[in-house]
Amino acid sequence: MNPIDPQAQGLGLPETGNFKPQLERRYKFDQIFKIISWAATFSAIAVLAILLIGVLSEGIPKLSLEFLTAPPSRKAEQAGIWPAFLGTIALLLITAASAIPLGVGTGIFLQEFAQDSKLAKVIEINISNLAAVPSIIYGMLGLFVFARLLEPMTGGRSIFSAGLTLALLILPVIIVSTRESLKAVPDSIRMAGMALGATRWQTVRIHVLPLAIPGILTGTILALSRAIGETAPIIVVGAAAFVPFAPEFSVEGFREPAFTAMPIQIFNWISRPQEEFHAIAASAIIVLLMVLLVMNTTAIVLRNRFQSNR
Amino acid sequence: MTDSVFPSPAAGDSTRSDRWKPNRSLSKLSQRSVVILFGAFAMVSVATTIGIISTLLFETIEFFLEVSPLHFFTATRWTALFANPSFGVIVLLCGTFLTSFIGLLLAIPLGLLAAVCLSEYAPRNLRAVLKPALELLAGIPTVVFGYFALLMVTPFLQNIVPGLSVFNSLSAGIVLGFAILPTIASLSEDAIFAVPQSLRQGCYALGATKRETVTGVVLPAALSGIVSSIILGVARAVGETMIVTLAAGQSPTLTLDPRVSVQTMTSFIVQVTKGDAPYGSIEFKTLFAVGMTLFVITLLLNILSFWFVRKFQEKYE
Lengths: 310, 317
What we know:
CATH architecture of the largest domain in chain A: Orthogonal Bundle
CATH superfamily of the largest domain in chain A: MetI-like
Helix content of chain A: over 70%
Number of domains of chain A: 2
Oligomer: heterodimer
Shape of chain A: globular
Radius of gyration of chain A: 28 Å
């Protein structure tokens, strides 16, 4: 009919010639962007790899049974990590014993009993605020409240004080993961329980909680593995003293006003100017990372079993 | 009549519930006590917040009774542990600012690009490997990053940067960046991945390339999540302790030169607590004044993040 480009006519647009697709340039820019973003991802992974390789090559030669079982020493060749290792285990016990009941209880309360109440909203905002507070601030809280105000009970700057401080630190994480796991349990189970005349608590205890436990455990183990790697708060609570003896696993032993743990020990050894201590710091890091690896693997195995069971 | 079988009720018509009365007082009691107990547990987290604020406030007020706030915020020298002390917190703020700035300069672009890559470019099965690997990086204790910074990165950088001292904010900042990168990457990736596919397809339909879709549509749509992940990253950088204590040193100098040693707020706290300051001494009070400053900064960042998310959050069906 007429010479106008049929496509332009279809869109009702006049052909102005102002629009230049410049596809070649744009695709080239696309390609560059893609390469840069891959490079960014791999730079992070590469740093992880370099760090691990560096630590392993420094630390493995010094790693021996003697190193694992000896107390720290002024001489690097004789120094070991046994008291620090036991200190970390003791911290883990106290943290778990206090944080798990508190965190799971709070999670159950918020999710099953106080849902959508004003109180739950306030606590929720409070928890998300607490999660952003730097860990060293928790250390100062522990120093003031547990190590000073409650000194007659905790024994001062003791494993007790440090363990309770770490418990407060990971409490938000445990609460959130408990709530998430409870949320994932279908409501029909609650309704069935209550339709049979069970109280809310009976329904939760007998039917809901067992289904949520694998999820809660996964979250809790991850939180605990974060706790044992935390260094700043326990240094603030416990000071980085030279402690050559292993803690006694008793109430009295946990109240001893001097203790050490693996992160503190690593910090001490890195801070020394002598290179021999840097090498054993790397060995201690390997031990710490192994503990973390075991805990994380447990958490992942639990999660996978949980997911395949559903 | 059935009345002869069952004893007739004293008053009113007989309903079944009158006849069947299971004794449930025990289960009701246990429910009540559990709710009260768990409610008390929930109060622990509120008590933690109150504890943090009152602890810091109490000792900070004591501190300001001895040192004027004007001096604290305007003096330009920090010699808190010397015989003739001067408390210019600006010096510590500057140290914190310098290390955090270097770290964020690295972590924000790299973290965002990694998030884009994982969400938009990586094939599904590769993403399933790379994301946990990044989160593994986030799970490494910071004291290990401190080792990395002081004993591996600094010696390496000393070959490249002339005049780099053993303790410096450059290597602390770089490693700090890699320590907070996974936080930013993982949280922004969640936000980017949640942007509905229809928005991307709409953009492609307008003739945009993939990169134009990502930067023009996907990232703005995920803005609130990205910004809150960045703010969290800033808060972590400011509050990070072990890396800066080990790698940036302990000398409070008012400088923006990344090659020399600086002291941050957090490393000052570690320095004092390591030295076993007696309760009630000025050093002990200084500790809490610095802690309060740090806490207020992270609280402000948190409020900023809340405000931003509420204002800019996009809701998709």
